[in-house]
Amino acid sequence: MANEAVTGKSGLTRQAAAYGLGLMTLLNFVNYIDRYILPAVAPRIKEALSLTDTELGVLGSAFLFSYLFTSPLFGWLGDRFSRTRLMAIGVAIWSLATAGGGLARNFGQMLMARGVVGVGEASYAAISPALISDYYPPDRRGRVFAIFYLAIPVGSAVGYLLGGAIEHQFGWRAAFFAVGLPGLLLALLTLTAPDPPRGINDPPAAVPADAGSYVQSLLLLGRNRDYVLAVLGYAAYTFAVGGMSFLVPPYLNRERGMSLTEAN
Question: What is the pTM of this model?
Answer without folding.
Answer: 0.86
